[in-house]
Structures are given as C-alpha cells and as structure tokens.
Task: structure prediction
Amino acid sequence: MRIEASRPSSFSLLIGLLLMLFISGCGEGHTATASPSGIFVDSTTETFFKTTFDEVKACTDSKEGKFEEISIIMMPPTFPCKWYAAGCAGEYVTPNSIKVGSLTTWRHEVIHYLLNENTGDPDPDHKSPFFQSCV
Result:
C-alpha cells in the first residue's frame, strides 16, 4: 500500500508565514524603554476599590462612611496582625485604615469600616449578617 504525502495548502503556507512574521517581532531590536523602578498600582485598582466600596455600602444600607475618607494600605498576602497568630490577609484599623493583603478581603474589611461609622462598633466578632450577605 502506497501513501502519498499531501502538499500544504496555500492557506497553511499563509498562516505559517504570518506566524513567522509575528514571532520575528520579538527579541533583539526591541526599542521600548525600560519602566522606572519602584512599586506602582494601576489606576484601575482604585476604580475596583471604589466600585466595590459603593456596592458594599448599598448592600449594608449604610448612611455614613465615604470611600474618600479611607486610607488603603497594600500589604503582603499574609501579614502580622493582632487577630490571628498565622497573620491576616486584610485588617480594618480604626478609625479609617484598611490593610489589604488580598483583594478578596476588601469587602469584608469595608463592612468593618461601615459598621464602625454607622454604629460605633466594627464588630470584630463578625456577628453582623452583612459578613455573610455582603461579601
């Protein structure tokens, strides 16, 4: 039995040529300048914080507390805190600081802030139903 090899189609050749052109654009000859050294946070991160804050404020039906009054402190994923021996991923510190090690803790910490602003009790024991319904 004889098997004949088929020739590549014009479409396959075109795709191969295009891939080679795209790949050849990488590597040497790159003219972009290096970014400045340092730690930067993209502007969309603030939008995320603000939008989520507004959602949590609406969910808790809070009247007091403004996003602009909060000091947000970016932390490592787990950092030392007084609440847990293994550390925290987020922490609300009265009166207006929220330490964020993981963005997933942001809503939770905003609830502490809003409870403190509206009731005078940040609820460190997590008894408020908002910790279930608004995270």
Summary: The chain is about 40% helix and 10% strand. The two ends are 67 Å apart (CA to CA).
